[in-house]
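A reminder before we start the practical. When you read a complex entry, don't treat the lines as separate problems. The point of joint prediction is that each chain is placed relative to the others, so the output describes one connected object in space. Small molecules and nucleic acid strands, if listed, are placed in the same frame. In the example below there are two entries. Take a minute to note the order of the lines before looking further.
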Amino acid sequence: MMKWTARMRHLLSRSVDLLGPPDARCLVCGGRRLGQPPQTAGGLRLGDWLCAGCSARIPWIRRPACPRCGRPVFCPDCVRRPVRAFEMNRSAVRYNDDMKEWLALYKFRGDERYGEVLAEMLLPAYERLTAEVSAEAGGEDAGAYRALFSSPMNWPDRSRMGHPYAASSMTGRRSDRLPESRSGGQIWHAVTYVPVGRERAEERGFNQSERLARAAAMRANAPLLPLLRRLRDSGKQSQRGRAERLRAMRAVFGPDEAGIGRLAEAAALSGCRPDAPMRILLVDDIYTTGSTAEACAEAIRAAVPFPVRIYVLTWARS
Amino acid sequence: MKGYLYAFASEGRWSASVTIAPEVDLAYRLDAGFRRAVEAAASCGDEGAAARFGGRADVVLLLDEPLPLGIAFSAAEVFARRARRVQGEAEAARLLRACAREAEPRDGRPGLAGLNRSFGREQPAGDVRRIAAVRFGRASGEREARMLAAAAREAAAALEGRALLRGEALALLGAAGPAPARWSAAFADAALQLAALLGRLRLGSAIARGDGVRGRRRKRRCLRCGSGEARMRRTPCAACGRVCAYCEACLLLGRCRECTLLVSGIPEGVVSVRMRSADALPPIPARLERWGLSPAQSDAAAAALRWLESADHGARRGISGQLRGTVARMAALCNIAGTPGRKQTAESAGASAKERPPFLLWAVTGAGKTEMMFTLIDSVLARGGKAMVATPRRDVVLELEPRIRKAFPEHTVVALHGASREKWTKADITLATTHQTIRFAAGFELVVIDELDAFPYHNNPMLQYAAAKCVAPGGHRVLLSATPPADMRRAAAKGRLPHARIPVRYHGHPLPVPVEVRVPPVREMIRRGTVPDKLKRAVRSSLSRGAQLFVFVPRISDTGPAASLLGTICPPDAAIGFTSSQDEQRTETVMRFRQRELRVLVTTTILERGVTIPRSDVFVLDADAPLFDEASLEQMAGRAGRSKDDPHGRVYFCAPHATRAQRAAIREIRAMNALAASRGYIRGESLAANGKASARGTVR
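Here is the predicted structure of the whole assembly.
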């Protein structure tokens, strides 16, 4: 039915799209992103997916109030329960309604383009956690640590439309980031993630924590190791109360022998002192009460025959 | 999801097939007792249908390792193309392995190959198992077979006319979801598989790969929404352990992956047409009486009915062609291995699909399309068919539902939209938002598409594919529009598109002809803070005659300032509101306008359709804006004079100069009025008024 004139018209109407950038639409609001995507130097490439308005709405956690769980406000949970199996948690954003929607679009609807956005958003928190840990790890790094926190431009700032590292005083592009060596391999010996059950993985097609962890591992230049397996499905955490969550999480995770084996190999190869603990980065999408992180950290500690310190990196803190 | 690929020989001919429940297939192919039992239980009297498929096999070669569905089905297809040359079991086994290997994703970027390697997937195609005899079940094989056959029959009946992903199908069958499971998922899979073997429905992967013959690249296509390679996104998939594609276009209605099972409730083979002939029905005029239509409405409805009912005779002759058309679009690629006749089905599909043009009901705004639609639905239901009404917006679905229930009290009605709960209910009349049509296949004898020129249906190939797909063999599509797109008008004018025009409103008064008013652009008026006298006079006179005012502006940002500008010239008791697509309180604002709390509403094109206010006048500011095309202007003008009590609303196109769109809209409205007058649809007292209105012309 389509005549050649109609076909020509169709082609002509599409030609404008062919000339422009391929997908210049904001992932969240569907509005056209005008002009060049705001590529920030060495920083986040959120401009590839989001328009300025939507990336400005990201509720970054700029300053954690709780040194342990990374909550941006005072945290009664950590006061009540000071001893944890993990060292600390750091999250990139607050889990507000916008973020809830983004995560739902990713996890439940399966729009995997959000996976890339979320992974990108995780990086500032990763950098901060790495800086804190490196400061803690060696005295010689303390100067760098202080420098990091005395300069305000290392964190996404609302006044800069949510484009972190768009530092005005910085000259070199790479220098906006932490030096590679510090965010690199010797801080993190391994990166791992919270596993999902087989059934859930098949239903969803991906494990969002694994995807986030992959991004962090690439950044850290550390091996991504599956250290855990989910022994049974704990059901949906989001429909439970606090006490219930803690109870449900018991004995959910078991060791993944292959991953643990590779961790031991990595430990031997790294050549650090046998008594020095290995630093493992555990990645998950949300930190709510910390029960998942706690359970995972306990399971890793129980499975690994040498001392480890587990740090938790999450995308959102609710 | 994964499925098993197997080849089987019957009378020396080799075919391949894919199964999600291998024990069912093996028993069906090899266990004569099982086959007899299920065919007896499932066909219930229709012996011919079951015998035709000849599913018996002498030997089955089963590939041990399950393959992702997309790969498995594509391998079966490759096997079918080459099976003619196969001699002997060893060769068949080799071919089976080769097909499975070939179907593995290898194409495209090196990064993907690397990812596939990281999944440990370089050498697929495990061992081939030879199976020559099986017995289904344990001690009570016969009873189990009967149970399964009953379940298969039930599943086929429940899924008839639908196109559902496995998760949705299981939810429908009560095997998943919040309610306690009636069947286990495995049992439901087995029932689906058996129903497919019996030819009662079709199983396939939701995204099919086209055949890569003659060196062309294999292009993927979503079989649910018809989207092509451009909307496919390939990601590593934990469900199948490969890099597999999903369809971004229909993500809103659940994710279609290459490895997802799509269940299509299209029976295989010759379809017994559900609908009876119209000969037994009373004559058309007698049937139309019931609806109390105006003369123009009855004429158009009669024309549409004649088309709908006469087409059936031709349809019965060409039924196989139609079946091919509907089916082949989505199902030619599914389950290819079977009767050799089906290959031709796929080839001749394209041509016969095009043979069925829809019927266009071209009715002016406020013509009473809904009642005309009722007459068509009535005809189809009376003959035992099912009807679907697809409309772009949810509020129209909600508004239409009670009216349809009232008009057809003896029939079941279901309303489907994003938030509706009765997703899986079967009904005689299905009312749905346009997107929901994606979940149906060959389910309806009549599909009415409302406002075909509106967002989202217009220019959306996905929804057009979906709407065409849900027409049953021997069924019809009817399109409703006040402002059909240009190519459709041309087709109608040249007689290529059957259509009926309704040039007058149900109340028999002519359409208000827009008056052009020469005023500066809105922004200029806002900047100066003054309104030219002629516009001021027009607004005040409209208000003083007791009308409510629609004021349309092209830009969202102008709604607020224009509202405050109008506030300066309106009497203080006339409340002014404004709204747009970005207004959070849009629903409330429109509600206040409907309740006459607001006298003036400044808005954008979002309200150009659907809102009916009894006594209203229309002002289009910046009518020369490129956003306001002919259709949009006609729709906006159509907001005035819709009620019987105030049929002569006023319409003003306010712009600094004339544009083609404005002129064309006015010309079209005049032409419709002239057509109505020449056919004698216009009431006597209106003819004079009409003449006066058109003589007024431009206000200068």
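Discuss with your neighbour: The interface with chain B takes residues 1, 6, 109-113, 115, 201-207 of chain A (CB under 8 Å). What might explain this?
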